[in-house]
Design a protein that fits this description.
Helix content: over 70%
Largest sheet: none
Low-confidence stretches: none
Mean pLDDT: 87
Number of domains: 2
Length: about 170
């Protein structure tokens, strides 16, 4: 199995051009065309990416995140939600890199094997960067009406957050 896992990527790199040759596809030309399209998409995405990252940076730097956590902490304590993971629940729909930063902060503060970090890690894997996806990808293709996508994404994120806490209490609590 170890040898197979080492060889998988080189085999794929060799197999795709060979398959193209068998099917009489001009592999290099098709690759270059795909690279051109990828570059054009990247250029269209950059403004949306910069805008969402700027907004997230302002949200964190303004102290609004800490203020929101302070307001919600008493309510969350009543339902058994660990207040320490609230920054992850708030940041994860906004940005992947911001939630990685929150995760690193939690690991540094509580240790990698703590209940809080287990909940945050489960939350990280169970939720999506909803606003990032909407801003970047919907913006790149020109979709302006995102109302139902926002609602569906946030409901899915909320389900992931609740399930993360419940599953971690069930498994580790």
């Amino acid at each position: 199995m170890q040898i197979l896992s080492i060889l998988v990527l080189p085999l794929i790199i060799v197999a795709i051009p060979l398959y193209g040759l068998i099917k009489k596809v001009r592999v290099y030309e098709v690759f270059v065309e795909g690279a051109k399209e990828g570059f054009q998409i990247g250029v269209r995405i950059i403004p949306y990416l910069v805008a969402i990252l700027f907004a997230i940076g302002m949200f964190r730097a303004s102290g609004a995140l800490e203020m929101l956590i302070g307001l919600l902490d008493p309510v969350l304590a009543l339902v058994g939600f660990p207040a320490e993971v609230l920054p992850m629940a708030i940041m994860r729909p906004l940005t992947g890199s911001g939630s990685v930063g929150v995760m690193a902060d939690l690991i540094a503060a509580y240790g990698e094997d703590s209940f809080v970090v287990k909940v945050a890690g489960t939350m990280f894997g169970s939720t999506e960067t909803t606003f990032y996806v909407l801003a970047v990808y919907f913006g790149a293709v020109g979709i302006r009406k995102v109302r139902y996508a926002v609602q569906a994404g946030l409901i899915a994120d909320l389900a992931g957050v609740i399930a993360s806490v419940a599953v971690c209490y069930w498994l580790f609590g």
